[in-house]
Amino acid sequence: MKLVLAVVNNDDSAILSSALTKEGFSTTKLATTGGFLRAGNTTFLIGVEDDKVDAVIDIISKYSRQRTQTMPDPSVYGMGMYTNYPVEIKIGGATVFVVDVEKFVKL
Amino acid sequence: MKLVLAVVNNDDSAILSSALTKEGFSTTKLATTGGFLRAGNTTFLIGVEDDKVDAVIDIISKYSRQRTQTMPDPSVYGMGMYTNYPVEIKIGGATVFVVDVEKFVKL
Amino acid sequence: MKLVLAVVNNDDSAILSSALTKEGFSTTKLATTGGFLRAGNTTFLIGVEDDKVDAVIDIISKYSRQRTQTMPDPSVYGMGMYTNYPVEIKIGGATVFVVDVEKFVKL
Ligand code: NI
Ligand code: NI
Ligand code: NI
Hints:
3 copies of one chain form a homotrimer. In chain A, 23% of the residues lie in helices and 44% in strands. Chain A has helices spanning 10-22, 53-64, and strands at residues 2-9, 26-33, 41-48, 67-72, 86-91, 94-100, 103-106. Chain A is of the alpha+beta class. Chain A starts with a strand and ends with a strand. In chain A, the strands form 2 sheets. The first copy, chain A, has a 4-stranded antiparallel β-sheet. A two-stranded antiparallel sheet of chain A has the order 4-5. Chain A has one domain (2-74, 81-100): Alpha-Beta Plaits (2-Layer Sandwich), CATH 3.30.70. In chain A, helix 1 (10-22) crosses helix 2. Chain A is built from 2 helices and 7 strands. Chains in contact: A-B, A-C, B-C. One nickel (II) ion binds next to loops of chain B. Chains A, B, C: It comes from Solibaculum mannosilyticum. Chains A, B, C: Pfam families: CdAMP_rec. Chains A, B, C: InterPro entries: CdAMP_rec, N-reg_PII-like_a/b, N-reg_PII/ATP_PRibTrfase_C. Chains A, B, C: This is Transcriptional regulator.
């Protein structure tokens, strides 16, 4: 048994939670602030059999990996002039720790 | 030294907290949402000597084990008819992870 | 890779967070209640290379170790009389767990 601690962006928290539940993984969400990524993260605790760790990490990657999104350039120059070139911003991102569980009990 | 992570139902959180403190165990409660059980859980972090792990699990079991409660049947049939047979619902429940602690410091 | 879980007094949380970030450590803060110390704690999750564990513990010690502060004696005796002798109260304090990380992934 392993415990997966995953810190993900709040924006990806709901969809990741649904995906993990749908695949049969039990999760607990901790409200967190600041940290590994920008402010506004959620920490997931996921108890998982040793041979399912990679499957869990794949799901976390699919739904909360850091990716870029193209946005209109928000830069504004003097006298209201601005460029029309789009810029890429980074969204999402996850930090995952896998820890060994010596004893696991459901009561 | 071990770290016991216990996810318990909010309804059992206060009484479990008192019981652990009374038995001399130091606990930290994390507010959690959703997860291993129904929505509304509390995660306890309990630092404990190796030979006290079972004593902690016994206390968690005593105060937050899943159990059934008999309730009037809430089912309502057509035209306001309903059965009077009582039903059993499940309350409580806990998921416990025990993790090895390599270093423990009180500052 | 190690995961450092540090439960510190809320009063020391902001300055500790800044110090860890300034030294290049990534942290996640969990809101916590009650526990190892008096009510009002914050739990930090800090992912760190094996050879940096002591440096992290040194920073936690520097900013959130339990220390005494001299205060005017708040005791009040009968008829409004009170002593002028200052008393020492304890503030801060931290409980630190270091746990081995089997797998660490940034996504
Ligand atoms: Ni295992
Ligand atoms: Ni040990
Ligand atoms: Ni390691």
